Amino acid sequence: MARRDAEAGAEPPDDYLEAAIQRLLTENTEIAEQGITVTRRDHSVVLCGEVESAQRREEILRLVLERFPQVPVTVDIGLIRTQAPTEVEELR
């Protein structure tokens, strides 16, 4: 989990910040990400979910920090496997 802080003592995020970030991620034509949950925690926001690559995770973080530079962001975005399985799954 990565944490990027703005200035210490930053103002608490406003009431619409979570929705604004969610909309930014959803409506951005290059990202169009609907699988990320945005949650406010104290004076920061937490981005949670799973994406298919580290590059996509970094692009999401870059986009949020670029649009909301004053907001501390904690990233809890994991990576999912996008390749086909290499073994046969045996069900019992």
Give an overview of the whole structure:
The structure is a single chain. The chain is 27% helix and 26% strand. The protein is built from two helices and four strands; from the N terminus they run βαββαβ. The chain has a four-stranded mixed sheet with strand order 1-4-3-2, covered by helices on one side. β3, α2 and β4 form a beta-alpha-beta unit. About 5% of the residues have low confidence. It comes from Plantactinospora solaniradicis. This is BON domain-containing protein.
Element string (H = helix, E = strand): EHEEHE
The largest β sheet comes out as: 4 strands, mixed
Structural class label: alpha+beta
Mean pLDDT over the full residue set: 83
Discrete helix count: 2
Q: What helical percentage do the residues reach?
A: 25-40%
Strand order of the largest sheet: 1-4-3-2
Beta-strand fraction estimate: 25-35%
Low-confidence stretches: 5-9
How many DSSP E strands? 4
Shape estimate: elongated
Give the N-to-C terminal Cα separation. Answer: 36 Å
| Cα radius of gyration in angstroms | 16 Å
Protein name: BON domain-containing protein
Quick tags:
92 residues, alpha+beta, 4-stranded mixed β-sheet, 2 helices
Could you give a short description of this structure?
By secondary structure, the protein is α+β, with helices and mostly antiparallel strands. The protein has two helices and four strands, in the order E-H-E-E-H-E. It comes from Plantactinospora solaniradicis.
